[in-house]
Amino acid sequence: MSMVSRPAHRPEEPPDPATHAVAAEPVAPEASGTTPDTATASATGTAPDTATAHGTAPEADARHRLTALQGLAALSLDTMASVAYGPEAIVLVLAAAGARGLGFTLPITLAIVALLAVLVASYRQVIAAFPDGGGSYTVAKTRLGRRTALVAAASLILDYVLNVAVSVTAGVAALTSALPSLYGDRRWICLAVLVLVTAVNLRGIADSAKAFILPTAVFVGAVLTVIVVGLFRDAPASTVTADGHASVLSHNATAVGALLLLKAFASGCSALTGVEAVANAVPAFRAPAAKRAQRTEVALGALLGIMLVGLAVLIGRFHLQPVEGVTVLAQLADAALGHNWGFYVIQFATVLLLALAANTSFGGLPVLMSLLARDNYLPHVFSLKADRQVHRHGVLALAGAAAALLLFSGGDVNALVPLYAIGVFVGFTICQVGMVRHWCAERSPGWRGKTLLNGFGALLTGISTIVVTAIKFTEGAWLIAIALPLLILAFEAVHRAYTRIGERLGLGRVPEPPRRDRSLVLVPVSHLSRLTCEALNAAVSLGNEVVAVTVTFDSPEDRQATEALRRDWELWNPGVELLELPAITRSVGPPIAAYIQDLTAHRPGAGSAGAGSGTRVTVLIPEVEPARLWQRLLQNQRGAVVAHAVRRDTDAVICRLRFRLEAARTL
């Protein structure tokens, strides 16, 4: 009897009896050992973010985590490198008041360093109280509520992305100060540096820290050398760098008023971004993680404070005037060391560290995104880790957003700085207020002193937030005012989507007992081969009934191919029926999907995951796994086309069988 048939409704078979269980009562999260958020993560395929889940031993896991020194290199590059543009931002504002205005550089710097000291002390307390990381987001979620936590998270995300763009563009600006011929290519240089930093971070935060220890040490040593040598000079050793460049000092000097000083303070506060990164990434440290993170935070604050004050003193000592096209740090290096090899060492160390300062964001933001993903505010893919304990998807998302900003700004740091620091100061303020609530609730030993410290920090950062936003609003900060609520709305949309998914999946409820339905397996074929044989072997192992389907086309050459397949199938006689599905267009996916829809309509329960008693339809798609990666370009992607059509138009299960060519050569 022929085993080849044309389209026809398949005969009905009585379904197997099915056991119908009454839906169980809801199970409380505590009773089931999971929370709704983690249950949703499990349902959507998110693996637990632990070393055990990845099969990594604790010793091996420790090798991918940070020591205090590595943490300083991996998480403080942003803050360290800010000495290259923080003092310059102050000087450029004060230049509007002429030489008299520049005399206020040191007092404003001291005010910023005082704020830095308060922030460092406050974040030490955050690390101790919330050792699981997340910084202001975790504090706000615990003490201030969900919506406030989302504001903190959104502000930090914006700041981290801006940090990458500003760091890279500032580094390239330092490079073009030393090599002016490269100025026209700064956009592409910025993108190249971004690709380099991203590639290093994809290898893991510990590896990136090891790679950046030497550049960090060279930069800090170079800046301290400039400060120490400069303090022993009564006059600049050289002014070659600034010669021939137009001064930006205002000839119509304005009065030194409170508004000008506040604007200079707001601009200089860009030097404080990154202070929170250590608190955000506490889980990235080796045990005891909190102690190591606290030591890193203190070392970061001490080094930054010394460098900021030292450079401010030199600016006043040398009566430095900002000029177009040359950074303030370059002028200070020229004045302290002279225009010699030492000057170029400073410049290239600055270029390297500024470019690598983006690493702070790569160390902190993926951890924050992972926490948001666990709480169902970002796609769960952001909580997954690669083998080297790196949140790969978070790293790539950050790189993509930063690349878009670099292209938008054209590699011009001045176009990005007005947007900078606002987000992080919002996070600073929320974090300090949350810590005040925390200490008042905990009332642990010394809670009054801790409350006063965080309250004072909240007051200072709150005032700074208002000042920075108001001063920079017309300079581009209005974009942040728009982006922040849009990002929060995106968080809420993702959360609602996961809530709906959880409701549809019945998370938190005990499901009905599993039942056995009849299984019909469809195998798309186009010719006879060993691949066809392997597919049918797998199909008869999976289902009660197996049908091979082939899509036929009405053209002379296609009719010949169909006749040949029909003849070969009857000669082979595999015990499996071959069903021909005619198609009007030359597309293999829709005819198979249409057949499944027709089958479902005439066979109750067929193909429906939610049906009671019936037949489960599985489409087993055989595909070749090439011996070489490039050989995938030679494939016709027929399997992907069929899978897409079946997934889009039916509820059938899709199974893709990979036939490895390497295994075939060993037989």
UniProtKB/TrEMBL annotation:
Sequence segments annotated as region (Disordered): 1-57
Organism domain of life: Bacteria
Keywords: Membrane, Transmembrane, Transmembrane helix
Transmembrane segments: 108-130, 150-176, 188-206, 212-232, 298-320, 340-373, 394-411, 417-440, 452-471, 477-494
Topology class, membrane: Multi-pass membrane protein
Keyword Chloroplast: no
Biased composition (Low complexity): 21-31
Composition bias, Polar residues: 32-49
Compartment(s): Membrane
Annotated protein name in UniProt: APC family permease
Lineage: Bacteria, Bacillati, Actinomycetota, Actinomycetes, Kitasatosporales
